[in-house]
Amino acid sequence: MFVYTPPADLLKGRVILVTGAGSGIGRAVSKSFAAHGATVILLGRTLKKLEAVYDEIESAGYPQAAIYPMNLEGASPKDYEDLAATLKSEFGRLDGLLHNASLLGTLTPLVNYDITMWYQVLQVNLNAPFMLTKACFDLLKAAPEASVLFTSSGVGRKGRAYWGAYAVSKFATEGFMQTFAEELETNTAIRVNSISPGATRTSMRRAAYPAENPETLPLPEDITGLYLYLMGSESRGIHGQALSVRDNSLEELQAIHSHSPMAE
Ligand SMILES: NC(=O)c1ccc[n+]([C@@H]2O[C@H](COP(=O)([O-])OP(=O)(O)OC[C@H]3O[C@@H](n4cnc5c(N)ncnc54)[C@H](OP(=O)(O)O)[C@@H]3O)[C@@H](O)[C@H]2O)c1
């Protein structure tokens, strides 16, 4: 398990957009970004859940968050451009982007996979991060050091029977991250990496493993260290990596960091 104790001001002054911020991992990570000084833009499809996270951040005395309700399934390219324009006019910057929202879809053999569901899962898990990243690119490029994090999964790194569109979308997410990382190696200070959070106690996990005892799993609040590390300056130089909360350690990433020209 990745363990990291960041300085309290790790993300001070940064503006970070988190998708799927209303529940599960997105909620916990948004709160930890805010706790370390970031202004967090909470994007998700259920306003009530976003409002609850907003209130938690406010009552903790962290920098005021913002809510951006958006259904990634139906959003058009124009909706993403409008979002980027709003970020520019309201905040003037974007330092971090966490693509966290995902749809699980159904667990079933590929030949039985419902075609409408296939499109929905790929729209939310793959096409939405593509359109959002594209729309936010100029803002990210203008930031002194921007970090973009994609959320993967164990089934996005090794195929597993019955995980269908979800697994395919996560493999594609890794491909997107790697392709983008190589393109960004010159002329930008944008870093991109992917995170596999590992089994975590959320409603998505419960839907995938209904017979599992959730008490055996870490809470979303227990796994925020890698997200914080990759969002902050201490990970400068970590770029194009497929990382895992369970399998990577701070020491290992610090060794990559110290050998990277970007770390200077
Ligand atoms: N939990 C695990 O064990 C595990 C393991 C590997 C990878 N992951 C990955 O970790 C990330 C977070 O998952 P989680 O476990 O925290 O799941 P979760 O609790 O189900 O949260 C998923 C979030 O995505 C949002 N979302 C889904 N469809 C959306 C749409 N059309 N538009 C906007 N937002 C949408 C949901 O919004 P609503 O709340 O409004 O529905 C929710 O906030 C996902 O990328 C998942 O693939 C999780």
Number of helices: 8
Poorly predicted runs of 5 or more residues: none
State the oligomer. Answer: single chain
Q: Outline, from the CA principal axes?
A: globular
Radius of gyration: 17 Å
CATH-assigned homologous superfamily: NAD(P)-binding Rossmann-like Domain
What is the arithmetic mean of pLDDT? 96
Ligand inventory reads:
NADP nicotinamide-adenine-dinucleotide phosphate
Helix percentage range: 40-55%
Give the strand tally: 7
Strand content: 5-15%
Tell me the CATH architecture: 3-Layer(aba) Sandwich
End-to-end span in angstroms?
28 Å
Give the CATH class.
Answer: Alpha Beta
Structural class: alpha/beta
Write down the CATH topology: Rossmann fold
Biggest sheet architecture: 7 strands, parallel
- Count of domain modules: 1
Strand arrangement in the largest pleated sheet: 3-2-1-4-5-6-7
Sequence-ordered SSE layout with sheet pairings:
Elements: E1 15-19, H1 24-35, E2 39-44, H2 47-59, E3 66-69, H3 77-91, E4 96-99, H4 115-142, E5 147-151, H5 164-183, E6 191-196, H6 203-208, H7 225-231, E7 242-244, H8 250-258
Parallel strand pairs: 1-2, 1-4, 2-3, 4-5, 5-6, 6-7
Helix pairs in contact: 1-2, 3-4, 4-5
